[in-house]
Design brief:
heterotrimer, A mainly alpha (234), B mainly alpha (496), C mainly alpha (85), A: mainly alpha, Cytochrome Bc1 Complex, Chain D, domain 2, 2 strands, C: 85 residues, 3 helices, 67% helix
């Protein structure tokens, strides 16, 4: 065998079929090559076909997979609407979902867990010496104006609740803070006034809107003294 | 002849007619030596840097005060630096080296003007270095997988194209008529990656789309970097090295072609499953889930092919450093992909999303599969490129065992810890309120995260062994030359 | 919604380009006979330096030892094949 006889065809001309076989044959037959390369051990060419068709079982499994894909996509495509985000959407059931009644307690619960519970604690008892309790606090269950005003502007400085004095800062959820709308403020205040042992009447969106208008000029957080001057403790 | 024409004819990499095949092959290896050594050296150095960032980030998760006063190494920066150093530093450099070499081998052509490749590769590394420094100094973006400051993107894009174009040129001038499956994967990935990168850069950072479109593009990109860049390159290496080293053709070539085309068809959809439960149109999420599940087809097909090829040859696999890594990678590909498909299902995703489980899965794919195959490829390629043997078998064994044991521990603890974390986060008490406070969940995770750091240290030892062995080899120590690991024996012509 | 649609059209257009280039590649592959003689293609990776049937990678310095080991473990299987050559 000599290397000079072999050549690699250029892509322009059709690849001669024989070329590859010849070169494989050389690899098998040439004793000299074995010595040169010290290829003492050889596992011979597999007689099996490289073309193994896809096993039938596998084809059936793939078929089932395609079937599942079709079913799944038909069920959860939300009619290809850009405004459908959940899997619980069903065609026609949409209008009922959109008009689900607003539940201030449910909404307030969620707002409380995410915004208030870290300081005032999930049980509403606050942290002694740091954060005042909400459960049974006259600031909460008393005059609605006082409570809503605190939520809308925050509170700083000493405040006395149930015989203990707390000195801290509560952030604002009104225009100079998180800017919640009337509905959310009515939901959070109603929830806090009716949760745990509190049994005060709810605060409506209209009440919140009224109070919001009345303190439009107020900037910065309240102090307890300011609020008590406006709304003395009952 | 015009200068332009003569340039084009000078990049024609075909060998002169009549040159014996053996001489052609050693010529290919010789001509690719400089660029490939550059890529492998930078890949290994990035691997070490990425490992250091990984350890820092990992330790901070259970000991937050560790390096707590170093502004450059806060958790957010160290983690992003780790990801980018590994993905774009180690991953891409290793890919450039291994895939271009496989391409040259299979096309039986070589790189002409290898100097240009070196320049492009140098710019790539300059770009990644600038990007990682940008991340450490606080210039990072908030987009996962694209944290590098946007200013380096054009540099990376241009140098990538300058590197990748050589792969395309080689393919254009390939010698044999048929395209081997590794060539399909490499060629596909060389087009997919710039496409993904440029679209994602444009739509998220340069001309930002609004709202959730950014999130969709982000996960389309992030997941496709794994699926349409790292995965095809890993598979191309397995499809080349596994049959090559065993000396027997792949079990079913037909299945491998089927695997390639079904990957190309389905993977593109899969990324959206990262946004299950997010405020994006539900049909898009469902399409992502279906695409992820349909990935079972290419995965099963590839798995049958790899495992049936290796089956019955386990002793041979064990005797070859290359195949130890490659077969480990192939098995991990099967497991990681099936787990990935399962994780796309809504019911499972609810638990695994936003937990360490996802982190474990990412390492399953990128380390246990992709990185291991690249290690294997480098072990096969370097003796042929440098005409030298690896100096130490013990160091190779150290590398293999540290990597294999380290990544196995990491996967076990991250998957188990992540699942527990997910169950705790979704557990509700009788009132429908979360059962566990966030801090309780954080505390429960500490032992798992601590074990992860331990596994990371094992991996670092393996990487160091790899580094030492490689630079030892580069420094020119001649090992025992007793096997066919050496391609062109300098004395060969005399013997004959 | 307006912004959304503009981008959707952009993505859709690019997606189509991508999709049709994939179809084109598939068409080229079929026409070029890439799906024929698959068995032969699978053997394309072997060459005279590293031919089919030969194990080509060992731990450095252990090639001879391991080759002998492999030979022993393969003996029975081997005999049958040799007669076919």
């Amino acid at each position: 065998m000599s290397d000079q006889e072999k050549y690699v065809p250029h892509p322009g001309e059709p690849a001669p079929e024989a070329g590859n076989e010849q070169h494989e044959a050389a690899a098998y037959g040439d004793e000299e090559m074995q010595i040169v390369h010290k290829q003492l051990e050889r596992e011979n060419g597999e007689p099996e076909e490289g073309f193994t068709p896809v096993p039938m079982v596998l084809m059936v499994c793939f078929g089932l997979l395609f079937f599942w894909a079709g079913m799944y996509f038909t069920k959860y495509n939300g009619d290809f609407r850009p405004d459908v985000f959940g899997t619980d959407w069903t065609p026609g059931g949409n209008s009922a979902q959109a008009q689900a009644p607003f539940d201030p307690i449910k909404r307030g619960d969620k707002l409380f867990s995410n915004n208030c519970a870290a300081c005032h604690q999930p049980d509403g008892n606050g942290v002694p010496g740091a954060f005042p309790p909400l459960d049974g606090s006259p600031w909460v269950v008393g005059a609605p104006e006082r409570f809503v005003k605190i939520v809308m502007r925050g509170l700083h400085g000493p405040v006395e609740v149930k015989g203990n004095t707390f000195n801290g800062n509560m952030p604002s959820y009104g225009e100079n803070g998180l800017n919640w709308d009337d509905r959310d403020i009515s939901a959070i205040t109603t929830f806090v006034r009716q949760n745990w042992s509190n049994e005060a009447p709810p605060i409506s969106e209209e009440q919140v809107a009224e109070i919001r208008a009345s303190i439009a000029d107020k900037t910065g957080a309240w102090t307890a003294a300011e609020l008590l001057a406006l709304h003395p403790m009952e | 002849m015009s200068p332009l024409l003569s340039f084009f004819s000078s990049i024609d990499p075909r060998p002169k007619p009549g040159v014996p095949l053996k001489v052609q092959l050693s010529q290919i290896d010789r001509e690719m030596r400089v660029p490939i050594v550059l890529f492998v050296v930078s890949a290994i150095l990035w691997l070490q840097a990425g490992t250091v960032f990984a350890l820092i980030a990992s330790i901070k998760l259970h000991n937050p005060e560790f390096l707590g006063n170093v502004e450059w190494l806060t958790f957010g920066r160290a983690r992003s630096a780790h990801l980018n150093a590994m993905a774009f530093g180690w991953g891409n450099n290793a890919i450039f080296a291994v895939s271009l070499w496989i391409m040259a081998r299979l096309c039986k052509v070589s790189v002409k003007h290898g100097g240009l490749l070196v320049v492009a590769g140098a710019f790539w590394n300059v770009g990644v270095t600038a990007g990682v420094i940008g991340i450490l100094t606080g210039g990072l973006t908030s987009v996962e997988w694209l944290e590098m400051p946007p200013q380096v993107a054009p540099l990376l894009a241009i140098s990538f194209i300058l590197v990748a174009v050589w792969g395309v040129i080689m393919f254009r001038y390939r010698a044999l008529g048929h395209v081997y499956v590794s060539q399909w994967y490499i060629l596909g990935a060389l087009f997919w990656f710039p496409w993904l990168y440029v679209i994602a850069q444009t739509m998220i950072l340069w001309l930002p789309a609004r709202g959730t479109v950014q999130a969709i593009t982000n996960w389309w990109f992030g997941h496709n970097v794994l699926g349409l860049w790292l995965t095809p390159m890993g598979l191309a290496s397995i499809y080349y090295f596994l049959p090559k080293v065993l000396g027997r053709p792949i079990h079913s070539y037909y299945l491998s072609v089927l695997g390639f085309w079904s990957l190309a068809l389905f993977y593109n959809w899969a990324g959206v499953h990262h946004l299950i439960g997010g405020p994006i149109p539900v049909w898009l999420v469902s399409a992502g889930i279906v695409g992820s599940i349909m990935m079972v087809i290419p995965v099963v097909v590839t798995a049958i092919n790899h495992h049936m090829t290796a089956a019955g040859n386990w002793r041979a696999v064990w005797c070859s450093p290359t195949l130890r890594f490659i077969v480990f990678g192939g098995m991990s590909y099967t497991l990681a992909s099936l787990a990935g498909s399962a994780m796309a299902l809504r019911d499972i995703n609810v638990i695994t999303h936003f937990t360490q489980f996802t982190v474990g899965h990412a390492h399953h794919g990128v380390y246990a599969f992709f990185t291991m195959t690249m290690f294997g490829g480098i072990y096969f390629m370097m003796p042929r490129i440098l005409n030298r043997e690896w100096p130490s078998a013990a160091l190779i064994r150290t590398h293999f065992w540290c990597a294999a044991i380290g990544i196995t521990i990491m996967l076990v603890v991250l998957h188990a810890g992540g699942w527990i974390q997910g169950e705790m986060m979704t557990a509700l008490d009788a009132d429908g309120k979360p059962k566990y406070a966030f801090l309780e969940i954080v505390t429960a995770l500490v032992p798992w995260l601590f074990s992860r750091s331990i596994s990371g240290m094992l991996l670092s030892i393996g990487h160091l062994a790899f580094l030492v062995n490689f630079f030892w080899m580069l420094a020119g120590r001649k090992g025992d030359q007793d096997g066919p690991t050496l391609l062109a024996d300098p004395n060969e012509e005399d013997v004959r | 919604m307006g912004q959304w649609n503009g981008y959707l059209i952009f993505i859709a257009a690019l997606g189509c380009v991508f999709f049709f280039s994939a179809i084109g590649a598939l068409y080229w592959a079929v026409r070029h006979g890439e799906f024929k003689k698959l068995e032969k293609t699978s053997r394309q990776i072997f060459d005279e330096e590293e031919p089919e049937g030969v194990h080509t990678d060992f731990f450095p310095g252990e090639a001879d030892k391991m080759r002998r080991k492999l030979a022993r473990s393969r003996k029975p299987e081997k005999a049958g094949h040799h007669t076919q050559d």
